[in-house]
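User: Hey, quick favor. My workstation is busy. Could you predict this chain's structure for me?
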Amino acid sequence: MNRINELFGIRYPIIQAGMIWASGWRLASAVSNAGGLGLIGAGSMYPPVLREHIQKAKQATDKPFGVNVPLLYPDIDQLINIILEEKVPVVFTSAGNPKTWTGTLKAAGVKVVHVVSSSLFAEKSEAAGVDAVVAEGFEAGGHNGREETTTMVLIPAVTAKVKIPVIAAGGIATGRGMLAAMALGAEGVQIGSRFVATPEASSHQNFKNAILDAREGDTALALKKLTPVRLIKNHFYDLVKAAEDSGADAAALKELLGRARAKTGMFEGNLSEGELEIGQVSALIDQIKPAADIVKEIWEEFEAARKQLMTY
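Assistant: No problem, here it is.
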């Protein structure tokens, strides 16, 4: 039992990331029922939809679960109000200033975790009063840090600067990867890409199949003049890269991105024109499995690898 287990009241220090178009109530409740912490991804949900997913998650599990909230969305106040009204026990915030909502959430008894990409942001999050931070390395899928610091470097850098628990994210999909993160000072792991390749994830089957087909070098970080995002290279990525190589400014890139590009790819399954957000670790994923099986597999591999290392 470590501080992450105690903080969230979970059996395993394994957190399923709150990913847009993937992390609905089915996935979150399945991970929580398996002993981890499932997160509903509010980033792709209108306020009434978020409320529906929270209520369905409550019916599907009696274990703790949480909601991930990107702070850059315009209706953030409505999302926070719903979270408070529904008495969600855990909130992971990202893509914004943790000072804005941490106090409000903590006053209501909510455990708050903020996602960071540098030790400086980790220190600011600790000062804002969060209970823990997710240190997310450059390998991660979806929205990413501008620093481009890898998980191997980021975790020890962050753990050296803060006293609160650190959760490692980015490039972790196996028990061995989890053990490596713990050896670097993390007390838990947040895993995204591996849980997209599950029956419970709400992503389109075409996107799940694309993850299975991905190999090393098939993802890249793009749109750095807007909000950096790691995605699978496809026709849309080629358009973005050509625009960036020609010196396109943020306004031009925003026009190219348009509306609902991520929904087009990840939820509707258009593998050519959609934005297919996934991490580098997709190269290690070759099978779709139930979320509970993944939690069990990761923990058993973690324990086996830990025991093996003790023999050296």
